[in-house]
């Protein structure tokens, strides 16, 4: 399908950040939102011709830009002027929506409501409570009334210990693997278990030993995202190196939760990880696991705090947490509220 490009050119990065997600959430499916907020990239962009349906641009940049490009529609961002063809920056995303009009928007509230949000959950250090973070977030999203699916894309799946569910035996694993190879709606529904929340049933053994690679989980998640049967899919990735496949899945999602600890080592790993996902445009959050109040909190770093909020601190526990603990202590509820 040919999409119409809506391009915002503004060197005010704070403004871009404040409007980008809201606009991406309400634009119709025939439109794709792109942004430019870097001078060097803008200079490079102008060296070649681009197809632009609608341009929203700082008024001081409009003249040179329109000499080199030929957008079909142009709106200039100003600081107060709301005359024809102008958008007041102080009106935020609502100012842009009002200027564009209904033809640019999702046709009805049902179309918008039925879009599936993909939440990727990763960790930058061992023992950060990644699985608890993923399950807890999915659980509280479900409790808020959102249809939510949890998927564990790991070789060693241990979330059954938190859920208190059974992984079955080798025969169950073979049956599960057989169903996972089939992309039909019936087969996918057969591997989803409903309990505290919906989740893809875990393997007792290693999925790869039954011919199921981690990439198959990604394929199934993408099918479910396209079907829009769920409001949210929480996808937990394996610990360790962030592979190219994981990075592509992160970029395909619109939410990212990073499990970390308060240690200096975890902070260093987090900083390197954030450098590697510089092109990610979705919403990101940090959950600090195994938090001990009396120890230094290395996550309280201006470089990190300015970019990604810490959604929640999960206190160190004297035993492995269960769904009962998550419910009784309301763990990850704040995180679930933050990602909505």
From TrEMBL:
One of its GO terms (cellular component) is cytosol. Residues 118-279 form the AAA domain. Transmembrane segments: none annotated. GO terms for biological process: negative regulation of cell division. Gene3D superfamilies: Ntrc-like two-domain protein, P-loop containing nucleotide triphosphate hydrolases. InterPro entries: AAA_dom (IPR025669), P-loop_NTPase (IPR027417), ParA/MinD_ATPase (IPR050625). GO terms for molecular function: ATP binding; ATP hydrolysis activity. This is CobQ/CobB/MinD/ParA nucleotide binding domain-containing protein. The lineage of its organism: Bacteria, Bacillati, Bacillota, Clostridia, Lachnospirales.
């Amino acid at each position: 399908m040919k999409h119409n490009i809506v391009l915002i050119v503004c060197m005010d990065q704070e403004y871009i950040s404040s409007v980008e997600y809201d606009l991406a959430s309400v634009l119709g499916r025939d439109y794709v939102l792109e942004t430019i907020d870097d001078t060097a990239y803008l200079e490079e962009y102008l060296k070649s011709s681009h197809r632009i349906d609608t341009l929203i641009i700082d008024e001081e940049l409009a003249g040179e830009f329109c000499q080199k490009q030929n957008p079909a529609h142009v709106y200039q961002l100003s600081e107060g002027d709301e005359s024809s063809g102008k958008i007041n920056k102080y009106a935020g995303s609502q100012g842009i929506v009002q200027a564009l009009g209904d033809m640019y928007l999702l046709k009805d509230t049902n179309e918008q409501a039925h879009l599936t949000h993909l939440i990727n959950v990763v960790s930058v250090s061992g023992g950060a409570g990644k699985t608890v973070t993923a399950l807890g977030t999915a659980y509280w999203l479900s409790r808020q009334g959102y249809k939510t699916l949890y998927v564990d894309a790991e070789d060693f799946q241990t979330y059954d210990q938190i859920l208190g569910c059974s992984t079955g035996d080798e025969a169950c694993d073979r049956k599960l693997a057989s169903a996972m190879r089939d992309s039909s709606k019936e087969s996918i529904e057969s591997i989803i278990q409903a309990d505290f929340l919906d989740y893809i049933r875990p393997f007792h053994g290693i999925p790869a030993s039954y011919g199921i690679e981690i990439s198959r989980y990604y394929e199934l998640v993408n099918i479910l995202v396209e079907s829009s049967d769920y409001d949210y899919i929480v996808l937990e990735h394996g610990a360790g190196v962030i592979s190219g496949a994981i990075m592509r899945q992160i970029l395909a999602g619109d939410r990212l939760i990073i499990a970390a600890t308060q240690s200096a080592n975890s902070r260093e790993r987090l900083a390197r990880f954030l450098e590697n996902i510089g092109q990610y445009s979705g919403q990101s959050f940090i959950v600090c696991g195994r938090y001990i109040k009396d120890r230094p909190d290395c996550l309280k770093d201006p470089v990190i705090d300015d970019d990604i909020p810490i959604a929640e601190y999960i206190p160190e526990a004297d035993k492995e947490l269960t769904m009962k603990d998550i419910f009784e202590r309301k763990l990850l509820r704040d995180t679930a509220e933050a990602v909505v």
